[in-house]
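Sample entry (144 residues):
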Amino acid sequence: MAQLSPRITAKLKRIPAVAVDAAREAMEEGADIIVAEMRKLAPKGATGRLALSIGWTWGDLPAGTFMIDEVRSGGNKGDQYATLRLRFYAGSREAFYARFQEFGTRDMPAQPFFYPAWRAKRAEFRRLIRKRVRDAIKKEFSRG
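Predicted structure, serialized as tokens:
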């Protein structure tokens, strides 16, 4: 039976860590791009608090915010498969009306800012992650 050389085996063992690191960096960069687009589209009003309340986090949401969406690495939505989980949020104690702006109310039409930005940037976000992971793996294999 053929056996892989120890050098190849060592490289293969390093790939998951290299891929996760590359995905993390790409997700952070992509999240910044998406948040900038959301802020651009958000209704500004007199204070601009809504636009300033939009952001992303790896962990728990800031107090007073609501989660707009969550992006997970891996093909499965289950927690056991998601290596990385990034959350987009909007609103604050001062900008509690973020969800009313996005979805509207009985008395106010929606002025969406999240979903139009997400739809506009989603493919770019995913391409960025795939490219960074692919490049990181190629770089790891090209090392001697």
